[in-house]
Structure prediction request, 133 residues.
Amino acid sequence: MKKTINTTGKRKSAIARAVLRDGKGIIRINSFNLDVMQPKFAKMKIQEPLMLAEELAKKVDIDVNVIGGGWQSQSEASRLAIARALVEFSGSKKLKQDFLSYDRNLLVQDSRSREPRKPNDSRARAMRQKSYR
Prediction:
């Protein structure tokens, strides 16, 4: 029976779900191959955990579904989900330590989030406009 790993990654309002299974090293983001992904910066960001776990990345297929947010948040959420899946699949403490020493955000979600709007006001920090009439 093939081993299948399901993981998630979040960044701002982007949510990525990764499914990792035994295979030939094919990575798909929203059913598109990673090779055709644009912009190039997002593609490079997603490839970081794959480069750190090179021999393991060639033995697995990864399918990632990402919704919400912009391209930057989506790429960081995908990167987080992929890295978590690779660590869970390998069960290696060395790989986990390599990811953490390279960049902590490969395994730990960024805790910053959008500040909520205040009641009866326009935005979180904007003061209400006054009219002296």
Observations:
- The longest helix spans residues 71-90.
